[in-house]
Amino acid sequence: MPNSGIFREIVDTNRMGEIAIDTHCRTNIPGIYAAGDCRTKEVRQLTTAAADGAVAALAACKYIADVAEK
Prior knowledge:
Blueprint: H1 46-69
């Protein structure tokens, strides 16, 4: 079971408690990202979790830059 309980009332999750994300690790709430084994995914390995972290970090940086421009 993913350790996502504190987020279940904030972002969309599935029946198993995995956080729903898009291909950029974005949740349904702007500015909130999920990576690793707490998010919906088929393969659960250290390498995929690390890749998720990189994708989420780059997407978050872009989000912050976009917000700062406004």
